Amino acid sequence: xxxxxxxxxxxxxVERLTISGHGLMASVITLGASLQDLRLAGIGHPLVxxxxxxxxxxxxxxxxxxxxxxxxxxxxxxxxxxxGRTYVLDRNERDRTTLxxxxxxxxxxxxxxxxxxxxxxxxxxxxxxxxxxxPGRLEVRVIYRILPELSLQITIEAKSDATTxxxxxxxxxxxxxxxxxxxxxxxxxxxxxxxxxxxxxxPLGSPAPVxxxxxxxxxxxxxxxxxGGELVDHNLCVxxxxxxxPKPVATLTAGELSMRILSxxxxxxxxxxxxxxxxxxxxxxFPYGKHxxxxxxxxxxxxxxxxxxxPSAILPAGQSYRQITILSFAVPRES
Length: 335
Hints:
The chain is mostly beta strands. It has a single domain (2-330), classed as Beta-galactosidase, Chain A, domain 5 (Distorted Sandwich), CATH 2.70.98. The protein is 0% helix and 41% strand. It has no helices and 27 strands. The strands form seven sheets. The chain has a nine-stranded antiparallel β-sheet with strand order 10-11-12-13-27-23-22-17-20, with no helix packed on it. Strands 16-25-24-21-18-19 form a six-stranded antiparallel β-sheet, with no helix packed on it. A hairpin with a 4-residue loop joins strand 3 (24-29) and strand 4 (34-40). The protein is globular, with a radius of gyration of 19 Å. Keywords: Carbohydrate metabolism, Isomerase. This is Aldose 1-epimerase.
């Protein structure tokens, strides 16, 4: 299904595209190529935070479900040196850092629909050379595809005509039980280390052990035991390099429903939505407040351009970037 979802202030039409199959249904809007709704057959509530109208996506719902880039997460001081040349980037976060590719990053742009089938949709965007200060004309596309056994695969592909930064992430906020906060969710992430950060949420340097910290999710942790304490908005280092084949990076459970995330990416940014304040009504039937969902963003480690020992976010000219993230669900079987 393809339908009108609203009109942007500049007159551009935003569309919503709905795909389904194998007991799973997903709706994607062209603004940010965002996952607007995700449903499982027999479950009466959505599995992601989203809004039924366009307006909240321009304010409180910024980045909800979006494909963020060309460089996800933060770049310190909004400066990057690539192939010996210094690039001054758009400092869209408190005029200090570059967040998710700048103010006009892919999570804020209206993507084009390339193709849609019953169980898949392909969207594309093109970032010109110099866009938000980054070098290279970058062509990017995302493929949402429903797979058997209750899985949604998100594939992001990109290519640039000049060496540039390229690090995309899906930015959905997940809520698996339809309640107003995450208290009864259980999270497990197989990461032995994380990146400590400064007041701007910029990594300080080398990874630190999660052991003894509030970021130790190696064994399943009830999120209600962590909410309201130290901030959870950190990169967990699930591996030291990108891979060709998706690997397990997180499991989120609420009641008898669970979601396993598999990804090719070496980092997982975990954020428990501390900034949310009740505003517009969401697709869940209520306004979203603090801790209404958890973002689990598979990506290269943040600010990698300033840390040679991190997995690289550099995409050489003419080479292809490909990221795969799979959301795989398990529900109780009828006896």
